[in-house]
Design brief:
By secondary structure, the protein is mostly helical. Helices cover 73% and strands 0% of the residues. The chain contains eight helices and no strands. 18% of the residues are buried. InterPro entries: RNA_pol_sigma-70-like (IPR039425), RNA_pol_sigma-70_dom (IPR014284), RNA_pol_sigma70_r2 (IPR007627), RNA_pol_sigma70_r4_t2 (IPR013249), RNA_pol_sigma_r2 (IPR013325), RNA_pol_sigma_r3/r4-like (IPR013324), WH-like_DNA-bd_sf (IPR036388). Belongs to the sigma-70 factor family. ECF subfamily.
Length: 181
């Protein structure tokens, strides 16, 4: 099947078309980000965000451009946003360059109120995760709570790595919908 046909099926919300696009273009997007970030985890996360955003906005894809170019552009913009966010958080920290003054050490440990809020948010998140189907719960648990790599998850579940990526992508999307409600 030609890529244009697969894209048309994806525009009609065909899950197998999404899987095919992910399989076909994963290495291009991941490789592009690996060169930019020089970090496998960041490259994987950005690549997944790229496909998630692309699949959400596939109806806006203009066929006059190559699909790969469209994906790479989305990926590049996600990376730029990530870099900007990191830079702004670094720039927002106070900086005293005058050695005559003592340096204030900022206590960044959470206050008791912050700990309580975090625990409540985690409890709510866990309740929301339990609303997902068991196989989605499992993949979220393995990735975000046990912090396994995609390869380790693939071995744990005895599934191809691309299935794990798609399953995680789908689980995150469904979880986001539950949280929004």
């Amino acid at each position: 099947m030609e890529i244009k046909e697969i894209i048309e099926k994806a525009k009609k919300n065909d899950q197998s078309a999404f899987n095919a696009l992910l399989d076909f273009f994963w290495n291009d997007v991941y490789g592009f980000q690996l060169k930019r970030t020089e970090n496998e985890n960041d490259a994987e996360d950005i690549a997944i965000q790229t496909f998630s955003k692309a699949f959400d906005k596939i109806g806006t894809y203009n066929e006059t451009y190559e699909f790969k170019t469209w994906l790479i552009t989305i990926s590049k913009n996600i990376h730029i946003d990530l870099v900007r966010k990191r830079k702004s958080s670094i720039q927002n920290r106070p900086n005293q360059s005058n050695d005559d003054h003592f340096h204030d050490i900022i206590d960044e440990s959470p206050s008791p109120e912050d700990k309580l809020i975090t625990e409540q948010n985690l409890a709510k998140l866990l309740r929301d995760i339990k609303k997902l189907k068991p196989h989605y719960q499992e993949v979220i648990n393995l990735r975000y709570f046990q912090e396994l790599t995609y390869k380790e998850i693939s071995e744990e579940l005895n599934e191809p790595i691309n299935n794990v990526k798609v399953k995680l992508l789908r689980a995150k999307k469904l979880l986001a919908e539950i949280i929004i409600k």
